[in-house]
Amino acid sequence: MINVIIAGAAGRMGQRIGYMVSQHPELNYAAAFEAAGSPSIGRDPGEMGGWGSAGVRIEEGLEAVIDKGDVVIDFTFHAATMGFAKIAAAHKTAMVIGTTGLSAENLDELKTLSVDFPCVQAPNMAVGVNVLFKLAEKTASILGDDYNIEIVELHHNKKKDAPSGTALKLAEMAASGVNRNLAEVGVYERNGIIGERTMEEIGVQTVRGGDIVGEHTIYFCGPGERIEITHRAHSRDNFAQGAAKAAAWVAGKEPGLYTMFDVLGLQDL
Ligand SMILES: NC(=O)C1=CN([C@@H]2O[C@H](COP(=O)(O)OP(=O)(O)OC[C@H]3O[C@@H](n4cnc5c(N)ncnc54)[C@H](OP(=O)(O)O)[C@@H]3O)[C@@H](O)[C@H]2O)C=CC1
Ligand SMILES: O=C(O)C1=N[C@H](C(=O)O)C[C@H](O)C1
């Protein structure tokens, strides 16, 4: 069995990942942790999540549990994630990172750290979204420069980062399809007398409200027609299943930085 440590085990994703890990034939829920001072310390994450006993109690910090597992699954907060990655790299323990809001510098640092440990990092672990990433790149490359590319994402009112990591990755995939650099053409807000839209820009807009789990639409708007491709998450279970699948896949792999395309075999599509 592969022993799994869950970071942020009491969180929205941490609880569903715990359930998926407990159901997975190759995975064992070995340890759980939250930050020092969390009211969840000492509690059973399964009981908190309403799915039974996880057989573990939530401990304080990754250092307390790192020797108990083969892989750490992290869906927490960007400011914490890099610290966890340094500890996992030092112990050569595999990691699955779903936390969004990581900066370009964080991702560079992760690449450097990954010479010491295998790590899957992806802003969205749902199968459907990873297919959507590929469709976005392919559709952009087929339609070319005559179609304006816009992305709209909707999430719940507790989400801390914007735009979503998924929307940014979608924009990056579409930009790659038309050979543009997102850092040069990304537009994240519009307000006031902004003038006509340029052909190159790729717009990314954010909606926050209620308990929306996650919805992403990419628009290709051309002369007299448009294509809209939408992914809607009905629950967090598809993300959590993806995280469990990634944990089973990455444990024992060679050191390196991997994505869900590697886990799902979509790399060459
Ligand atoms: N890749 C993917 O497929 C998906 C990614 N996400 C991403 O996952 C992340 C978490 O989302 P969600 O579960 O909704 O958020 P939550 O806030 O519900 O959960 C995060 C958990 O991490 C805990 N946490 C924060 N800092 C630390 C720390 N230093 N040490 C240990 N635990 C810590 C939080 O504790 P506290 O509340 O005390 O701060 C909380 O319990 C976000 O970045 C989100 O965008 C979400 C869904 C899918
Ligand atoms: O915070 C969330 O909830 C989600 N975050 C991820 C993101 O930022 O892309 C993925 C998913 O859409 C849910």
UniProtKB/TrEMBL annotation:
The keyword Lipid biosynthesis does not apply. InterPro entries: DapB_C (IPR022663), DapB_N (IPR000846), DapB_N_CS (IPR022664), DHDPR_bac (IPR023940), NAD(P)-bd_dom_sf (IPR036291). It comes from the Bacteria. The active site is at H155, K159. Residues 128-264 form the Dihydrodipicolinate reductase C-terminal domain. NADP(+) binds at R43. It is an enzyme of class 1 (oxidoreductase). The keyword Amino-acid biosynthesis applies. It catalyses: (S)-2,3,4,5-tetrahydrodipicolinate + NAD(+) + H2O = (2S,4S)-4-hydroxy-2,3,4,5-tetrahydrodipicolinate + NADH + H(+); (S)-2,3,4,5-tetrahydrodipicolinate + NADP(+) + H2O = (2S,4S)-4-hydroxy-2,3,4,5-tetrahydrodipicolinate + NADPH + H(+). (S)-2,3,4,5-tetrahydrodipicolinate binds at H156, G165, T166. Residues 2-125 form the Dihydrodipicolinate reductase N-terminal domain. Homotetramer. Catalyzes the conversion of 4-hydroxy-tetrahydrodipicolinate (HTPA) to tetrahydrodipicolinate. This is 4-hydroxy-tetrahydrodipicolinate reductase. The gene is dapB.
